[in-house]
Design goal:
The protein is of the alpha/beta class and about 250 residues long. The protein has helices spanning about 25-35, 55-65, 75-85, 105-115, 135-150, 160-165, 180-190, 210-215, 215-230, and strands at about 10-15, 45-50, 65-70, 90-95, 120-125, 155-160, 195-205. It has a single domain, classed as Spore Coat Polysaccharide Biosynthesis Protein SpsA, Chain A (Alpha-Beta Complex). The chain has nine helices and seven strands; from the N terminus they run βαβαβαβαβαβααβαα. Strands 3-2-1-4-6-5-7 form a seven-stranded mixed beta sheet, sandwiched between helices. Strand 2, helix 2 (about 55-65) and strand 3 (about 65-70) form a beta-alpha-beta unit. The longest helix is centred in the middle third of the chain and has 17 residues, at about 135-150. It is globular, with a radius of gyration of 17 Å. The mean pLDDT is about 90.
């Protein structure tokens, strides 16, 4: 169980969550283990943002010792910002509720932030379980773009709280891809202050491939093509359906 009754934590781990009762416990357990591995149990807080869930998400978070913040409007960027604004740590880590955190990755992110020349960044990713060859190529393509352009995937973002506040957090104007806007804004702010945006490439985070089960390849391809060809689609919740629709059962 996490116990973070701290006055001034060094680190805040923020987990936005909407109806995540099936995966949240495992995610929070991984956070506890990562903090313990890095010697951060007494210097960190864990915040779960209940994004207007209708299941036991908040109860599970409380039972695991996390601090629960409520965000009534169901929007990913708003949930991230609610957690970031409530955070007391000097350093922030945003972790998706379907993604487990490893101590090696957390340690690398902390080392970057403590080094004094990094404003934040992300990490290369993989999908848990078996995925098709086509999806493997998509993930590899994303990792290449992330490293080349300096972009963080939404499942894991680390940064200075100062930088988060300076850029105004994540954009409320978009319903998907908010991490892209945020990466660009944070990188620009960091450059002005002599700080680099670093995507960690020698440690990989594994995130859930459950959307591959929820939606057909055609649906996923159509959604991706829509955002690539018409970036303004990110401003419409209806056109960002796969990020908000949960199939029953």
């Amino acid at each position: 169980m996490i116990d973070h009754d701290l006055r001034v934590p060094e680190l805040s781990v923020i987990v936005p969550a909407f109806n995540e009762e099936s995966l949240l416990e495992a995610t929070l357990q991984s956070v506890s283990e990562a903090l313990r591995c890095c010697g951060m149990m007494e210097r960190a807080e864990v915040i779960v943002v209940d994004n207007n869930s209708t299941d036991r998400t908040a109860d599970i978070a409380k039972s695991m010792g996390a601090r629960v913040v409520f965000e009534p409007k169901n929007q990913i960027s708003r949930a991230r910002n609610a957690g970031g604004n409530a955070a007391r740590g000097k350093y922030l880590v945003f972790l998706d509720a379907d993604t487990e955190l490893g101590g090696d990755l957390l340690g690398r992110a902390l080392a970057n932030l403590r080094g004094g020349n990094c404003c934040g960044g992300g990490v290369v990713l993989s999908m848990d379980g078996e995925v098709s060859a086509a999806m493997s190529r998509v993930v590899a393509f994303w990792n290449g773009i992330a490293l080349k352009l300096g972009l963080a995937a939404g499942c894991f973002i680390y940064c200075l709280k100062e930088g988060f506040q300076a850029v105004g957090g994540f954009s409320h104007a978009v319903y998907a891809g908010e991490e892209i806007w945020y990466s660009r804004a944070l990188k620009k702010w960091g450059s002005k202050h002599g700080l680099k945006f670093r995507v960690i490439s020698d440690v990989v985070i594994s995130t859930s491939g459950r959307k591959l089960e929820w939606f057909s390849p055609g649906q996923l391809l159509l959604q991706t093509a829509l955002l690539v060809l018409f970036p303004w689609a990110a401003y419409s919740r209806r056109l960002c359906r796969i990020w908000y629709h949960r199939p029953k059962g």
